[in-house]
């Protein structure tokens, strides 16, 4: 049984007709009156259906003429190029904090109507009402919760739920091997502090999310940027070359599934090879598994940790992107560094508050959680495709884009010579905020890239904003 | 009008009579029947009153004979000695983490019926119901709270409330100069990371709370322990001497008000001198103001930050001990390191969750907060005095104790040659957990001390536990 609202069922019907070529670009849609009569639906349902297809870029409204099938987006953009596998630059850090802070400050100071800068979903993508109810239940069931010291390492039930969920990613760990942290950011901090000392070299994907570069810089660690494929993730060849040039690499940090900003997914064979290579080289492997649940497929992606038999992989994850942006719930399972990470967490911030863990455990143990994830995946897929269509329609020739199989953002290559910094400023002036490519590397290698969030439901306003952005890129 | 329950009013009446000598030790209390008739109270009120006085150690029940006035505690113990002001030992760190972790693990593994080890109050000392209601209100008023990313630096209202409350401690800072942290522990981490690099020397009070020693060790900083008076706090003379011997001190960390474990309060003249001395020496001064609100007097204690005009003082505090052990709410105002601390907080754990801040702000803006603090102060004072009485009654000759003017614990010196480690183990076997003195220093200087929590309401069971502990100390 189809449980989608009537207007959505109707929309699917017409989408199929358009995809099948039954209705063609440029043709007029049946009028509202015809739709009402043909499908025995109300005026509001017929209208809602057309507006929905309009917001998805499938129809366009022409004044006094009704709705028309829109021209299909021009064929998708050229996929992003594979990186060259050369010896990496002696990257280290160049004060990315100052750069990122400057960009964030400029972004926050501006009045924007459209914010494409964050890799986070809109509130309506998340089950905040159900979580709120779970929190209220938690407060009722634990009346003296705020009067008692928080439990060491985290709430026991929550840790059990996480251990059970980890089985999906083929990780077999006990609840007592999980430490709850303040988001994945704290987990990464603890992992890096456990394996390295200031001055040490850490290999990272290039491009990578600026949060990681900031963490490395703030800990006095040096980032060694390894070329990373938009399709298959970090280049194992380049990593091996790097290790020959820099024999003192202490750790590798990767986002194997739906990398930020590329959206790449490492093939399982690469994951296994990377685990074995790191073991052989005695280099710690840190896995950031923040995005796995946001793939197109309902079949879970395997974590790198699944191939770890010696405790050399430190697994970090969070619920920030997949369940609740307003909860700071992350966790870490640190293999042979577990005791050291427990100590560092205790000394750095003590255990987390219990309430969000209680609420999240309550929700995640119910079947509603799986339903939420399926819905979230479907919506994000739709939003990514709509956004990719709009970018392909409006961006100037020479732009490249690989549409990833999941995640919250698109990584768009502008034609050469464009500066993301200049585009960022011009876009802000037009009320649009994006994340410029130069935030994602200590080098200037990605200055002609933009990361564009697909976290918000696609609307005519967003379409218009992409059109404006494209003209800024065109003129830049 | 006296709003205390009737049995408490009655108890006060008899306490006064005993203090005034109207009733003397060894005498029989009027019988329950007489009390009922004399004061026109119910059986349960009369019984409750006697049990209350019994639990406070004022009366003792003799089988089939009724209640008797107990012998007064022997005169209070000799006050703790002043430390010698010599050049400090080249303390640095000696792996206090391993020591503390070992003690904590042994403590957690044991089955105990009486836990005197934490410097934290019993849940019933805190307004957890009101906070719970405030949290539920917060969830109702912000239905999509868990769906939205948390606000940078913390909830605006909460920061305003803190800025307003800081005026009581004579600190004048704006809400935008406050960053919310995961408790005071994270605030201290950030402060130390802002001012020092691994290998640097930080001067600390000796003894000091083990949490600080763990933080220093985990950050690769070296603790230089400065003799500290149980009356007036850190010795300024000793600190000056230390600076002459170790010219590379980067910072000083002090708990000026109700130091943990000593309970000392620095006189205002010392606070001012310390601020000036640190400025002149170009040494950063970090203030931990966790306990100020727990003093005997309702007149607020001044923070060291009150004398800071150059931004050289980093102020850290939390609500953990004074409002809600179950909330991890701390904050930091970092003077001239503010921008660096903002950056470090963002890179270390991102901003805190909003809900506890919303709930705490709601409660703290009401008059209930002041009433709570007055009640908390009065109860802790009573508990400290009862505990001190019991210790004075039972501990062997040669023990020393200064009863502090506030706080959650007593710092008891056992007669020489006792080892707190041995006492800790023997006490655990008897079902009693204390904090051994050797946790409070990197040296072994305080191995003949115990820190005993006064956070729980004093009962006959606690009295018995102190008696048992005293006999363990006697035999040790």
UniProtKB/TrEMBL annotation, chains A, B:
| Family matches, as Gene3D superfamilies | Aspartate Aminotransferase, domain 1, Type I PLP-dependent aspartate aminotransferase-like (Major domain), Winged helix-like DNA-binding domain superfamily/Winged helix DNA-binding domain
Pfam families linked: Aminotran_1_2, GntR
Q: Which GO terms of the molecular function aspect are on file?
A: DNA binding; DNA-binding transcription factor activity; pyridoxal phosphate binding; transaminase activity
Q: Which residues form the HTH gntR-type domain?
A: 4-72
Which InterPro entries does the record cross-reference, listed alphabetically? Aminotransferase_I/II_large (IPR004839), HTH_trans_reg/aminotransferase (IPR051446), PyrdxlP-dep_Trfase (IPR015424), PyrdxlP-dep_Trfase_major (IPR015421), PyrdxlP-dep_Trfase_small (IPR015422), Tscrpt_reg_HTH_GntR (IPR000524), WH-like_DNA-bd_sf (IPR036388), WH_DNA-bd_sf (IPR036390)
Where along the sequence do coiled-coil regions lie?
Answer: 366-393
> What's the family?
In the C-terminal section; belongs to the class-I pyridoxal-phosphate-dependent aminotransferase family.
For this entry, the protein name equals Putative 8-amino-7-oxononanoate synthase
Which organism was this protein described from? Andreprevotia lacus DSM 23236
């Amino acid at each position: 049984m189809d449980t989608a609202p009537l207007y959505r069922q109707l929309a699917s019907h017409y989408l199929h007709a358009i995809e099948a070529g039954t209705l063609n670009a440029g043709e007029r849609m049946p009028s509202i009156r015809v739709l009402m009569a043909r499908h025995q639906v109300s005026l509001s349902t017929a209208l809602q259906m057309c507006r929905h297809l309009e917001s998805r870029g499938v129809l366009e409204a022409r004044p006094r003429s009704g709705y028309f099938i829109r021209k299909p987006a021009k064929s998708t953009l050229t996929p992003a190029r594979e990186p060259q596998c050369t010896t990496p630059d002696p990257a280290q850090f160049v004060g990315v904090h100052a750069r990122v802070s400057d960009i964030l400050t400029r972004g926050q100071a501006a009045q924007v109507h459209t914010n494409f800068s964050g890799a986070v979903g809109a509130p309506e993508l998340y089950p905040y009402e159900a979580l709120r109810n779970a929190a209220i239940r938690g407060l009722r069931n634990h009346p003296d919760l705020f009067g008692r010291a928080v439990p060491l390492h985290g709430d026991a039930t929550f840790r059990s739920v996480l251990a059970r969920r980890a089985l999906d990613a083929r990780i077999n760990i006990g609840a007592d091997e999980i430490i709850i942290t303040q988001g994945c950011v704290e987990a990464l901090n603890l992992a890096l502090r456990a394996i390295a000392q200031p001055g040490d070299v850490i290999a990272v994907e290039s491009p990578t999310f600026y949060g990681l570069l900031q963490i490395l810089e703030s800990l006095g660690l040096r980032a060694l940027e390894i070329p990373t494929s938009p399709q298959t993730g970090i280049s194992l060849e380049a990593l091996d070359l790097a290790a020959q040039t820099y024999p003192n690499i202490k750790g590798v940090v990767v986002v194997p599934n739906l990398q930020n900003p590329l959206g790449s997914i490492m093939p399982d064979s690469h994951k296994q090879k990377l685990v074995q290579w790191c073991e052989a080289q005695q280099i710690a492997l840190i896995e950031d598994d923040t995005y796995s649940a946001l793939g197109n497929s309902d079949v879970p992606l395997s974590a790198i940790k699944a191939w770890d038999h010696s405790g050399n992989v430190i697994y970090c994850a969070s619920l920030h992107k997949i369940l609740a942006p307003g909860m700071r719930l992350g966790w870490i399972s640190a293999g042979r560094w577990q005791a050291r990470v427990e100590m560092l967490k205790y000394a750095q911030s003590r255990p987390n508050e219990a309430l969000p863990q209680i609420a999240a455990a309550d929700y995640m143990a119910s079947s509603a959680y799986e339903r939420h994830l399926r819905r979230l995946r479907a919506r994000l897929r739709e939003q990514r495709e709509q956004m990719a269509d709009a970018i392909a329609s409006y961006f100037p020739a020479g732009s490249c884009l690989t549409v990833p199989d999941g995640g919250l953002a698109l990584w768009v290559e502008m034609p050469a010579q464009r500066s993301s910094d200049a585009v960022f400023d011009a876009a802000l002036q037009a009320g649009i905020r994006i994340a410029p490519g130069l935030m994602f590397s200590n080098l200037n290698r990605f200055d002609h890239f933009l990361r564009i969030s697909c976290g918000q439901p696609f609307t005519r306003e967003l379409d218009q904003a992409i059109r404006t952005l494209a003209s800024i890129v065109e003129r830049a």
